[in-house]
Specification:
single chain; 210 residues; alpha/beta; Rossmann fold; 8-stranded mixed β-sheet; two-stranded antiparallel ribbon; 6 helices; 12 strands; binds uracil
């Protein structure tokens, strides 16, 4: 662990996360909570975006008003659970470009297998926010960051709901400068690669496919 890991301990985030962990929480509420937490995490993943002053006129007087500098951010979702974070992030960043990376986990090796990759242009000029609710083994996230870097991305932040220490260590070893924003750092991975205590399979709970 190092200072590239940020745990968002805001009470609203923690409250909503506990509701998501509860196995009795139904799909619709689970999905809504994922969206709400994504909006709250968006605050942290964008907190250091550069601003530039632009002249505007309020109803009272002219002023120099700060607006985001440079190209719009890019959100990159690791399919499919990452899509559970997209709507919330897009609610507060409607101007963002969106990319998708399809990786499934080989259940025998726990290694990621790529089946899809479509990323926005000019990634090198954008803040790239990689979204995946579960940072478990870290293998998928590390592979996704590899793909983003190959496409020119340099300013990359990972946003997740839950991280396992094993996943954080793996991702930090592969990409030491990457900032990771998570709502919680859980205890460990189990033998199947699930985060413990966790919340179960995020994709199944988001999309009701359990
Ligand atoms: N993916 C999930 O959906 N849940 C876990 O606990 C680990 C990986």
């Amino acid at each position: 662990m190092n200072d590239t890991l940020q745990i968002v301990i805001h009470p609203l985030v923690q409250h909503k996360l506990s509701l998501m962990r509860d196995k009795t929480t139904p799909t619709a509420l689970f999905r809504q909570l994922a969206g709400e937490i994504a909006m709250l995490l968006a605050h942290d993943v964008t907190r250091d975006l550069p601003l530039i002053d632009r002249p505007i006129e309020t109803p009272l007087c002219p002023m120099q008003a700060p607006v985001l500098a440079g190209r719009n951010p890019a959100l990159v979702s690791i399919l499919r659970a990452g899509n559970g974070f997209l709507d919330g992030m897009l609610t507060v960043m409607p101007m963002a470009r969106v990319g998708f990376i399809g990786l499934y986990r080989d259940e025998a090796t726990l290694q990621p297998v790529q089946y899809y990759c479509k990323l926005p242009a000019d990634l090198g000029a954008r803040r790239v926010v990689l979204v995946d609710p579960m940072l478990a083994t870290g293998n998928s996230a590390a592979a996704a960051v590899d793909l983003i870097k190959q496409a020119g991305g340099r300013d990359i932040v990972m946003a997740c709901l839950l991280a396992a220490p094993e996943g954080v260590a793996r991702l930090q070893a592969a990409h030491p400068a990457l900032r990771i924003v998570t709502a919680a750092l859980d205890d460990r991975l189990d033998a199947r690669g699930y985060i413990v205590p966790g919340l179960g399979d995020a994709g199944d709970r988001l999309f009701g496919t359990a």
